[in-house]
Amino acid sequence: MTFVTKYLPNYLVGITKLFVKFTNAFLQCMNEPVVKAWFHEYQNLVSKVGIADEPDRFWNCDKTGVQDQFDNGYAAGEVGQPCYRITPGDKGETTTILASFNARGEYGPPLIIFKAK
Length: 117
Prior knowledge:
Blueprint: H1 3-29, H2 32-49, E1 59-67, E2 94-102, E3 111-113
Antiparallel strand pairs: 1-2, 2-3
């Protein structure tokens, strides 16, 4: 009996049960009445605060992480000789960038977060 025939069926059954549980939990939270109630409450809040007709008040922000280890996949060496490329063992430090824009189409300055020393 190989590893695949011994463990794969049990793994597939377990992952399928987990997926079904996750899907059921997601569907209980994300159904039409719940979503409509959230948007109704949101619309009431926006009207109450008085910013419904001000698109510059609605911002979307998104963050992403970039690594400071750059690797273009090329190596230089003599023709006909073995070529070696030395790469760092660690993955480098992550820098976080937060980008933002509003409903009017204006962009905010990017927020760049470096690792603290």
